[in-house]
Amino acid sequence: MGWLAQQVSFSIRSPSAPVPSTSLCVFPSADAIGEKLAQRLLERIEHARIAGTRFLLGCPTGRTPRPSYRAMARQLARTKQDISHLTLVMMDEYLVGTERSFEYAADHNVWSCHHFVREEIAGPLNTGLPPANRVRDESIWFPDPSDPDAFDKKVASAGGIDFFILASGASDGHVAFNPPGSARDSRTRIIQLSEETRRDNLQTFPVFGVLAEVPSHGISVGIGTIASAKEAVMIVSGRGKRLTLTRMLSVERYEPDWPATVIHECAIREIWSDPEAARPTEAR
After folding, report:
1. Helix 30-51 vs helix 66-79: angle between axes, to the nearest 10 degrees?
2. 109: how many CB neighbours lie within 10 A of its CB?
3. Mean predicted confidence (pLDDT) in 267-272
4. Contact 244, 257 (CB under 8 A)
5. Which of 188, 182, 106, 185 is nearest to 145 (CA)?
6. Which of 13, 68, 133, 179 is spaced 20 to 30 A from 214 at the CA atom?
7. pLDDT digits (tens, 9 = 90+) for 73-125
8. Other C-beta atoms within 10 Å of 186: how many?
9. 21-278: what fold?
10. Residues 59, 200: Cα–Cα separation, whole Å
11. What share of the chain is helix, strand, coil (3-state, %, to 5)?
């Protein structure tokens, strides 16, 4: 590798703040984060194959994880690794209201999570792999708005999430669609999206055009769902994520007013940053 990650101390917190046990690694760039995370994930996935077990990977959509998915696809194109036992556990999806309930936003919309997983995760991962080695369609799991509780039960019955890739909203620290105030024990549920979350998603998908076009509801895994993962990495990249990194490093446990602090609740956890996000900023 032509780059090296640096594990650093929590120098951007105030001296009186508690020292978190979650380690921070600063990489030279977002692409370097992607390469390293792809390598780690593919190693974990291969170990599961050798052990004869399924591997459940919790996946966000959006800008932050793109370098990791692209790096995984490049590495798979070279190695032809068998990932047929991989299950993609998707964090959330936009919903549209019907007369009686909610349903998924149409997957032809480029901003839908179904579209994202097809075009930017499963599709690229499978490209170049023999059919027997590919992620299977039935192994892409989304929570069902008609029965949100069933999702956590399904994940638990499959052995739990082995690894969660996490990303945080820049303005309010939301994770998936969990807004500030989400309870530590919250589970998969339908959520009315906060304006901050919708504004962040407008930046991710400018095709929305205006805030009014961003859906007002979504279905999302809960804080408790994320915290139950066996391992997790929170990725923060770009200067827009300085505040959320500062907030995460200022505490050592979950704080409901900043949902990204759920990273401290995962059994094995790290925060991975690029230099831009790691520069100090004043917390609000």
Report:
1. 50
2. 18
3. 97
4. no
5. 188
6. 68
7. 999 999 999 999 999 999 999 999 887 789 999 999 999 999 999 999 999 99
8. 20
9. Rossmann fold (3.40.50)
10. 18
11. 40, 20, 40
